[in-house]
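About this split. The held-out portion is used to measure sequence recovery: a designer receives only the C-alpha cells and must propose an amino acid at every position. Recovery is the fraction of positions where the proposal matches the reference. Here is one held-out target exactly as it appears in the evaluation file.
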C-alpha cells in the first residue's frame, strides 16, 4: 500500500498518486433521485477526469458494475489535475452498518492527500415542481460562499452517507458544503442533478455542460432505475429501517 492508501477491517481505499495540490473533493453517493450519483458521473465525463482508484468494503452488495463491456469498481475515485478536483462516485447505496466507517475512511484519505474542502452532492424531496438547490455548510465562511447561489437549508436533517460525511467534516474541522437538488420522488432525476451542477459551475468556475442531461433525461431515468433495481435484488434481506422524510 502507498502512503495515501487506507485500510481497516471494514473499508479499503487504494489509489494512484494524487497529483493535484490541495484539491477540492466532491462526492456523490446514491440517494433520493440519485442526484449525487448522476451529477458526479456527468462531471467526470465532461471534465474527462482520470480514474485513479476505488473504495471497497465487505459490507458492499455483491455486484459488478459494467460500462461499455468493461467491469468497474462500484465506488470509484477520479481526478482532474487541470481543475484541481477529486471525485468519489458510487453506483451502489451504502448500508447504514458501514456508513460511519466509510465516512471516517474518506476523511482519513482526504487528509492524507491534502484536500482543502469537501462538497457533498445529494437530493432532497420536496412537493414543488421547480428544481432548486438547497445548501448547508460546516463553517460560516463556507456558508457565505453559497448564500447567494442556493436556498439555505434552515432546519432539518441530512441522512445516510451524505449526512455522515458532513458530520465527520464538522468533527475534523474540514470545510465542507452540502448541495441538495430538489426532486419530487425517489425516481432518478437528471434534471435535479443538472441544477446542482449549475451551482458547482458557479462555485468553482467550471463549465460542465448539462444540456445532455436534460435531453437524455428519459433515457437516463430508465437506465438508472434498472441499475437501482439490480442493486436492490442483489442485497441480502435486512431488518426494516425507518424512512427519512427529507432526503438522503
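Reference sequence for scoring:
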Amino acid at each position: 500500500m502507498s502512503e495515501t492508501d487506507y485500510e481497516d477491517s471494514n473499508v479499503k481505499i487504494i489509489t494512484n498518486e494524487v497529483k493535484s495540490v490541495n484539491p477540492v473533493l466532491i462526492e456523490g453517493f446514491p440517494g433520493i433521485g440519485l442526484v449525487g450519483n448522476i451529477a458526479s458521473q456527468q462531471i467526470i465525463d465532461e471534465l474527462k477526469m482520470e480514474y485513479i482508484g476505488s473504495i471497497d468494503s465487505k459490507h458492499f452488495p455483491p455486484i459488478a458494475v459494467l460500462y461499455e463491456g468493461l467491469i468497474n469498481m462500484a465506488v470509484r475515485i477520479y481526478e482532474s489535475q487541470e481543475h484541481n478536483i477529486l471525485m468519489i462516485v458510487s453506483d451502489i447505496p451504502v448500508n447504514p452498518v458501514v456508513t460511519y466507517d466509510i465516512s471516517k475512511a474518506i476523511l482519513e484519505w482526504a487528509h492524507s492527500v491534502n484536500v482543502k474542502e469537501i462538497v457533498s452532492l445529494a437530493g432532497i424531496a420536496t412537493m414543488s415542481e421547480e428544481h432548486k438547490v438547497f445548501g448547508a455548510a460546516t463553517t460560516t465562511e463556507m456558508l457565505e460562499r453559497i448564500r447567494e447561489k442556493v436556498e439555505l437549508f434552515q432546519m432539518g436533517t441530512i441522512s445516510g452517507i451524505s449526512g455522515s460525511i458532513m458530520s465527520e467534516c464538522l468533527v475534523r474541522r474540514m470545510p465542507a458544503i452540502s448541495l441538495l437538488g430538489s426532486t419530487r420522488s425517489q425516481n432518478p432525476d437528471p434534471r435535479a442533478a443538472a441544477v446542482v451542477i449549475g451551482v458547482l459551475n458557479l462555485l468553482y468556475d467550471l463549465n460542465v455542460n448539462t444540456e445532455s442531461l436534460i435531453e437524455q433525461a428519459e433515457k437516463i431515468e430508465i437506465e438508472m432505475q434498472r441499475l437501482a433495481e439490480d442493486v436492490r435484488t442483489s442485497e441480502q434481506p435486512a431488518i426494516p429501517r425507518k424512512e427519512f422524510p427529507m432526503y438522503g
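Annotator remark: Residues 3 and 112 are 8 Å apart (CA to CA).
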